[in-house]
Design goal:
Elements lengths: L7 H14 L5 E5 L14 E5 L3 H4 L1 H9 L6 H15 L5 H5 L4 H18 L5 E5 L7 H6 L4 E6 L2 H11 L16 E5 L7 H4 L6 E7 L9 H14 E12 L1 H10 L4 E3 L3 E5 L17 E6 L3 E6 L3 H10 L2 E8 H8 L3 H10 L3 E2 L4 E2 L2 H7 L2 E8 L23 E2 L3
Parallel strand pairs: 3-4, 3-6, 4-5, 5-16, 6-7
Antiparallel strand pairs: 1-2, 7-15, 8-9, 9-10, 10-11, 12-15, 13-14
Helix pairs in contact: 4-8, 6-14, 6-15
Bound molecules: S-adenosylmethionine.
């Protein structure tokens, strides 16, 4: 389709962004300009050709980059593999979501995150959502009446989906006019970059949330330390660090109970490498313990075991004190005792309705058992909460998303 010629500066800017930051462009612009235009090409019209997601098409380019040494370590390849995996998972329609074989587990996860957010967030709080994915928690933050939101994720496809969700362009947001808070979206590896620098104009945050993602930092001690250094640096004293991740104690117990190096059920599967055939994990080497994780209709990538004792000790080194830790099963039992949360559970339909033959399955409930909830508090005296508004809701254009080179 013919479109008008973009300005030369805009073209230069785009080319710079794609080459310097290795953004795997989701749109390719092909210009065929008239001979007197700055491009100096022959022809008369301008075409914009849409590409599929870059990783579908650009696999050979990615491999080339890796061979050239851009992603020269195995660790970096796995980081990219994880990012590509999540990038590829596009937004589902409401109907597709309801048809998911793990619909009750997804709703249960949402209930757990909602409860955490409601307990540890106050009206007007500023929130950093690390590994925010497709912005699946935006509505939860809105319900908690936060004052400002920054979402960061390594997967460019997910950040784009989060942008659309925030802008009210997806069916998740159907019927919504806008969110009650301004937001910023960043595409970056938050276990590699220096978030204190990147977020220096945003001041300190009241809450940092890392949902279902902190374990992706556990491939090396360096990355795990960077993750905690980032969390600690952006939190104000007294601020909360809340999250969910796999429960290593449960994973190791299930591994030891399994005849081989693999276990799971109809909705999830975990497989450890032969090098762990002894099923021993000495506390002296707590990083880089990799397993393959498959969760039906959700996850299919390598993950890292996070021994909680080590997680807690490392957090303490960065001034983060453990407040609360609970396996999902005990968390559900504990918070279902509270009327508001039990009502929310019913409203979401997370446990389903056994009388109607629509209850959470045993396999889903067993899959929930492999996760835990954690809450840390940044040490130091709590200053008065900043109540100043950081502006009002304004949709985010593609150009306003910040891309940090990876
Ligand atoms: C299971 S999803 C959870 C998404 C979201 N937090 C939620 O609860 O819906 C894990 C997310 O972690 C992101 N992620 C993994 N490694 C990351 C990294 N190094 N930096 C930023 N995000 C990362 C993935 O791209 C993915 O969006």
């Amino acid at each position: 389709m013919a479109r008008e010629l973009p300005s030369w500066t805009a073209i230069e800017h785009l080319v710079d962004r794609i080459s310097a930051q290795r953004i795997r462009a989701r749109r390719l612009l092909i210009f065929v300009g008239s001979s007197d235009d700055p491009l100096g090409a022959t022809g008369i019209s301008v075409h914009i050709v849409e590409m599929k997601r870059a990783h579908d098409i650009d696999e050979s380019a990615t491999k080339r980059l890796r061979r050239d040494g851009v992603n020269d370590t195995q660790g970096k390849e796995i980081v990219r593999q994880v990012a590509d995996h999540y990038s590829a998972r596009s937004n589902q329609t409401r109907e597709q979501r309801e048809a998911s074989p793990i619909i009750h587990l997804k709703k249960l996860n949402n209930w757990i995150k909602s409860v955490l957010i409601q307990i540890y967030t106050q009206r007007g709080d500023t929130v950093l959502d690390m590994a925010c994915g497709k912005g699946g928690d935006l509505i939860k933050w809105d319900k908690a009446s936060i004052g400002y939101y920054v979402g960061i994720d390594i997967a460019e496809g997910s950040i784009e989906d989060a942008r659309k969700r925030y802008n009210g362009e997806t069916d998740h947001a159907r019927g919504r006019r806008d969110f009650g808070f301004p937001a910023k979206l960043i595409c970056a590896d938050c276990f590699e970059v220096d978030l204190e620098k990147i977020l220096k104009d945003d001041g300190l945050f009241n809450v940092c949330s890392v949902q279902f993602a902190m374990h992706y930092s556990w491939d090396t001690e360096e990355r795990a330390r960077r993750a905690f250094r980032n969390v600690s640096a952006i939190l104000q004293p007294g601020g909360c660090f809340i999250g969910t991740m796999p429960d290593a104690d449960v994973l190791v117990r299930k591994l030891r109970d399994a005849p081989e190096l693999e276990f799971g059920n109809r909705v999830y599967r975990v497989r450890f490498d032969e090098k762990y055939s002894e099923k021993q994990f000495p506390s002296s080497t707590p990083y880089g313990i990799q397993y393959e994780f498959h969760l039906e209709d959700a996850v299919d990538c390598p993950e890292w075991l996070v021994p909680f004792q080590c997680f807690k000790s490392l957090a303490a080194e960065y001034g983060l004190e453990l407040v609360f830790k609970s396996n999902f099963h005990s968390f559900v039992k504990q918070y279902c005792q509270q009327k508001d949360f039990a009502d929310l559970m019913r409203k979401l339909g997370a446990l389903g309705d056994s009388a109607a033959g629509d209850a959470i399955t045993d396999d889903e409930w067993d899959a929930a058992y492999i996760y835990l909830v954690f809450v840390f508090r940044k040490s130091g005296n709590k200053p008065p909460r900043p109540r100043s508004s950081r502006g009002t809701y304004k949709i985010i254009s593609p150009d306003e998303v910040i891309y940090i080179p990876q």
